[in-house]
């Protein structure tokens, strides 16, 4: 990507393939925009975020489309061969789904069934937040593509997302050796915010977190046409594909603005999670410890 990249035009396929082949991206067949939140430097010398533990992605609904099915034990127990096998090989047995039921129904993207994997519904928004009126207002904000509009939307996510984010944070607190993945639909906004919260709690600098957020620009490219196809069915976007693309932008400066919002309106990440996710200082100490490792221990 270049400094003048608008985020609206398709990216060069060779460039996308190259970036997706390298960390932090992880390939799980049928799942878009997957990446590992590990190996980021923290404020503590020789301490980085733990690799192979916390993963983010877009929806998992299409994981069953890759490679057919494999029978386990009997004909009634089926799992998709490639996608689920890869996920299980990574040790991921817990999935946090940040989507709401109306959203899944709207896009015909149900929660998949994967044998041995617990999929935890953790919706950020309630079903009533998907009324035509509320949805239209959110789409109008997204369509502007401005940082100011995104901050209104991200404040809504923070206001509603405490219980969902708390479930993920408690997993980190209680299960430091159990890798997990969390996702929304595109893996950009709700997913981007809880990813930022996790990395911020771990002591990662805002610069690196903002870079991670901006990687969704590349990570979503394989699903570009599918996502656009969905959006163009909405009246607001039907005659304005550029507005639809503005909804999908994930600019570095947007995440930098989010950190200002988090600090100025919510008192910073620790105050936010203590207030909205009902966590304690002791919880945060444990969560921080469970998210990081010493690079010296690898030698």
Automatic annotation (TrEMBL):
PANTHER family: TYROSINE SPECIFIC PROTEIN PHOSPHATASES DOMAIN-CONTAINING PROTEIN, TYROSINE-PROTEIN PHOSPHATASE. This is Tyrosine specific protein phosphatases domain-containing protein. Coiled coil: none annotated. SUPFAM superfamilies: (Phosphotyrosine protein) phosphatases II. PROSITE patterns: TYR_PHOSPHATASE_1, TYR_PHOSPHATASE_2. Residues 166-205 form the Tyrosine specific protein phosphatases domain. GO terms for molecular function: phosphoprotein phosphatase activity.
